[in-house]
């Protein structure tokens, strides 16, 4: 799958980079026929490489850097990669090193090699770019920040952007401050609290206190706005107080738009009754926490709860709610009922469905969709592995429709990144998993090679080897089967391979005596299950047995939190709510998608990892 190229951007980049090497021959940027231009630049790139063969350092590097620049501008990343690998960075002058960093990082980001992009900046000399023109310093800082964000170091990206903000003027300055806010918003609360403990710089501490104040009061819009007003009084001289980030400015206007009359449609009878009850209880817990807050003074939206499990025609119910003047409908959960509502040409009042339409079905205006789709988790795992440079992966999953669907999502992620498709091991429950793992890792082929060598060379020491084209393993499995699969990976010489899994691997209840076999597995999980200190979680445990439906209680709570913020999320696609089911954002199809937290099994217990969720995919 070929990436689309932004040629205007690359022409600008070309101009900036050529100015780094004063006295070097420039490359003319001409208009005209693009095919002829591609042929001309291809010839020029080859000419530069030929010149490099006939010159010595440091001039040799100048020619290679020019060829690299041309290949990147043309989107010829294969040839660009060959050139960048041919450059010995230890022999470069400082101006050459600066150009090498910008070009190398640009190439790596275009290829989704985010760890590699960051490595260029990590290895940069301390005085790199210090004496360069401002436009080149800005480009270097923006690339560096983008690499930090893509590798989960959003807190570091925010610091870098604050440091560089003084280089900007006019509206560009305020745009960068919006980027600072976006980076902080993508940072886990644990990282923010640790940074706040040591922050001394006025601007930096002010930003940390701002994001903390807004985030800690997320369940109540009134409390959130009161915290924002309090922060602005305390930090009146802070840049963000003088002009709020665009998202916070709109947040301040939400009380004028929030729904005052909400209907929650949940199945309280039938096969989905337990799930519906959990969603209802989570929703109501968030509602009562909101209205009992000091800022709400007992005021909140009017809530009507309706058993959608007993409704035969959801379309008729919607029309009656419309006539009764409801501002927002939350639900239904049943997929068939969501599809019925999608048959309306427009939904007014809007609907926040608690499930997703089938792939390829466009929702009508006014329909939003939210759910606990495992597809979000598979995409998150794939993007993490790709960003870490793990190009070859294996996927282990059961021969079941739900798992086959997730494996196909994984395939599409790797196909979109122009990488080999994951190597599958599709198992049947109860089969001989050891044979399946051995076949996946090609252990038997290794043993056959050893037998052939032994027949020729006689007695010799030998240990079977696994295949070497796998950098990581993705596991889509229930806890019961995963507890058998993980030890078999160790037995079959794959102890060095990292294993990643979706949340299906965790039952939601600490069982260290059983889950010790899962030690070392990284997996995606909801903040609800990884935190024991959420006040809302404690409230629900007073009134309900949450052990089986933990994630659905969290979903109900998040549905209440999303309700008054739908317009904000629609207008700001990068906007995120740090919900109890993950960091929530809205895509172009008006679907609420999730970025979950990373966890790891240690001593049989699920523990949160101090890694930042990535930004919403672009």
Helix-strand category: alpha/beta
Enter the CATH topology name of the largest domain: Rossmann fold
Biggest sheet architecture: 8 strands, mixed
Q: Identify the CATH architecture of the largest domain.
A: 3-Layer(aba) Sandwich
CATH class bucket of the largest domain: Alpha Beta
| Proportion of strand residues | 5-15%
Overall pLDDT = 87
Give the neighbour order of strands across the main sheet.
Answer: 2-1-3-4-5-13-12-11
Q: From the alpha carbons, calculate the radius of gyration and give it in angstroms.
A: 27 Å
InterPro entries: LpoA, Peripla_BP_I, TPR-like_helical_dom_sf
Keywords: Cell outer membrane, Cell shape, Lipoprotein, Membrane, Palmitate, Peptidoglycan synthesis, Signal
Protein name: Putative lipoprotein
Organism: Hahella chejuensis (strain KCTC 2396)
Question: Could you characterize what this model shows?
Answer:
GO terms for molecular function: enzyme regulator activity. This is Putative lipoprotein. Keywords: Cell outer membrane, Cell shape, Lipoprotein, Membrane, Palmitate, Peptidoglycan synthesis, Signal. It is built from 27 helices and 15 strands. A hairpin with a 2-residue loop joins strand 14 and strand 15. Helix 8 runs antiparallel to helix 9 and helix 10 runs antiparallel to helix 11. The protein folds into four domains: 130 residues; 105 residues, Alpha Horseshoe (Serine Threonine Protein Phosphatase 5, Tetratricopeptide repeat); 160 residues, 3-Layer(aba) Sandwich (Rossmann fold); 167 residues, 3-Layer(aba) Sandwich (Rossmann fold). The strands form two sheets. It has an eight-stranded mixed beta sheet, with helices on both faces. A seven-stranded mixed beta sheet has the order 7-6-8-9-10-14-15, sandwiched between helices. It starts with 6 loop residues before the first helix and ends in a 10-residue tail after the last strand. The longest helix is centred in the N-terminal third of the chain and has 20 residues. The N terminus is likely disordered. It is globular. The protein has 618 residues and is α/β, with parallel strands linked by helices.
């Amino acid at each position: 799958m070929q990436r689309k190229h932004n040629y205007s951007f690359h022409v600008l980049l070309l101009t900036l980079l050529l100015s780094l090497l004063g006295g070097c021959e420039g490359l003319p940027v001409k208009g005209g026929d693009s095919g002829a231009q591609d042929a001309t630049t291809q010839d020029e790139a080859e000419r530069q490489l030929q010149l490099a063969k006939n010159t010595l350092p440091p001039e040799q590097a100048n020619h290679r850097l020019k060829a690299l620049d041309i290949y990147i501008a043309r989107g010829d990343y294969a040839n660009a990669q060959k050139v960048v690998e041919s450059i010995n960075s230890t022999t470069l002058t400082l101006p050459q090193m600066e150009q090498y960093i910008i070009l190398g990082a640009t190439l790596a980001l275009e290829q989704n090699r985010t760890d590699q992009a960051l490595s260029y900046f990590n290895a940069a000399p301390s005085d790199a770019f210090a004496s360069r023109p401002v436009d080149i310093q800005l480009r270097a800082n923006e690339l560096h920040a983008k690499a930090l964000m893509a590798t989960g170091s959003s807190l570091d990206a925010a610091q870098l952007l604050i440091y560089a903000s003084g280089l900007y003027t006019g509206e560009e300055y305020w745009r960068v401050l919006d980027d600072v806010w976006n980076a902080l918003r993508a940072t886990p609360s644990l990282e923010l609290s640790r940074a706040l403990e040591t922050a001394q710089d006025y601007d930096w501490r002010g930003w940390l206190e701002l994001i903390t104040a807004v985030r800690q009061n997320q369940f109540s819009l009134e409390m959130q706005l009161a915290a924002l007003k309090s922060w602005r009084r305390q930090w009146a001289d802070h840049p963000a107080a003088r002009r709020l980030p665009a998202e916070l400015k709109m947040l301040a206007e939400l009380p004028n738009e929030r729904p005052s009359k909400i209907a929650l449609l949940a199945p309280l009878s039938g096969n989905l009754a337990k799930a519906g009850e959990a969603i209802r209880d989570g929703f109501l817990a968030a509602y009562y926490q909101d209205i009992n807050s000091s800022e709400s003074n007992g005021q909140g939206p009017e809530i009507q709860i309706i058993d959608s499990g007993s409704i035969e025609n959801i379309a008729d119910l919607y029309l009656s709610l419309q006539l009764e003047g409801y501002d927002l409908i939350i639900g239904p959960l049943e997929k068939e009922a969501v599809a019925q509502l999608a048959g309306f040409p427009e939904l007014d009042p809007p609907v926040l469905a608690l499930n997703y339409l089938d792939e390829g079905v466009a929702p009508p205006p006014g329909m939003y969709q939210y759910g606990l789709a495992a597809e979000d988790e598979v995409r998150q795992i794939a993007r993490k592995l790709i960003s870490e440079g793990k190009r070859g992966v294996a996927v282990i999953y059961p021969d079941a429709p739900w798992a086959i669907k997730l494996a196909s999502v994984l395939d599409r992620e790797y196909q979109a990144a122009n990488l080999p498709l994951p190597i599958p091991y599709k198992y049947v429950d109860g089969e001989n998993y050891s044979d399946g793992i051995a076949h996946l890792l090609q252990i038997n082929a290794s043993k056959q090679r050893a037998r052939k060598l032994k027949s020729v060379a006689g007695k010799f020491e030998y240990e079977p080897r696994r295949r070497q084209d796998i950098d990581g393993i993705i596991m889509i499995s229930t806890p019961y089967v995963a507890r058998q699969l993980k030890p078999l990976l160790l037995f079959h010489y794959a102890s060095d391979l990292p294993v990643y899994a979706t949340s299906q691997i965790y039952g939601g209840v600490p069982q260290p005596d059983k889950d010790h076999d899962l030690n070392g597995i990284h997996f995606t999980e909801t903040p609800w299950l990884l935190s024991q200190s959420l006040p809302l979680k404690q409230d629900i445990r007073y009134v309900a047995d949450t052990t089986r439906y933990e994630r659905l209680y969290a979903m109900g709570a998040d549905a209440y939190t999303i309700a008054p913020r739908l317009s904000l999320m629609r207008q700001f696609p990068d906007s995120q709510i740090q919900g109890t089911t993950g960091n929530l954002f809205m895509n172009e199809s008006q679907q609420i998608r999730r970025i979950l937290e990373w966890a790891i099994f240690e001593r049989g217990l699920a523990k949160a990892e101090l890694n930042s969720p990535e930004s919403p995919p672009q």
